[in-house]
Here is the input.
Amino acid sequence: MNKSRRKFLAQGALTVAGLSLVKSKSIANVFSSWHITGLQLYTVRDDMKTPQDALDTLKKLSAMGYRYVEHANYVNRKFYGYTPAEFKKILDDLNLKMRSGHTVLDVIHWDTVKNDFTDVWKHTVEDAAFMGQKYVISPWMDEAVRTDMDKLKMFLDLFNKSGELCKKYNMKFGYHNHDFEVMTKLNDGTLYDFILQNTDPKLVAQQMDIGNWYGAGGRAIEVMKKYPGRFELMHVKDEIKAEKGEMAGEPYESTILGKGVLDVKSIIDYAKANGGTTDFIIEQESYQGLAPVDCAREDLAAMKKWGF
Here is the structure.
């Protein structure tokens, strides 16, 4: 897990692709499931620092064959500096769709006096719906609630409530894991066990980040075996031993798909068959000296080779 990504998410909490048709394996699921691959735009964050940079980068991604993206920048009701209407037009013009996005849900988004979400979170959900998203994903959990059982139960209740709000817009709320969920022990299990056991799968989807699991000792297939069908989205990553510099202190860092230690193809094949996964989102946070857009191109080529 990139330390700059941690800082990016923590600060965000305070401030607030090619398609493939996979044949059904049972008569009960005679309508075949769609599996899509997209790109988490945090992968190319340094190329999207200004609205013009974002536009230029999205053009490159579209040209190389991406059809789905997942945002990681929604501030003051704007995506990468663009209003929802402006950003939707850009995506439409480039034949891109945005099925999901990352925006941190925090306790500050619940008004205890009104017993309702704040306007800030309501606008987050409204703007996601306008963009055509299917999922509103929160990718962080404040340290203050992770081990305080009372606070944690109340916070996970907000997950379910956010799921109810998203459902009104034909969307689903979701949570994205890092490493602390398996490293944090609660009772006889982990924090992640507690999250899955205290959220309604009809309201709260899980986005599994297979790279974040690995460095913490978690193994994606083992988690999917324990909770089959719970992982509608996946962050597809490969990992190598971390180099010095930005990743100092971290055991692993992400790399181009197929060049690391994870058996990524086996994981995504298992997720298709047993994880309930439909959306496979590429994310790479470290580049070993290569340009992020070049890594994104190679990552997409690997996914195509694997049948996407």
About this structure: Residues 14-32 have pLDDT under 50 and may be disordered.
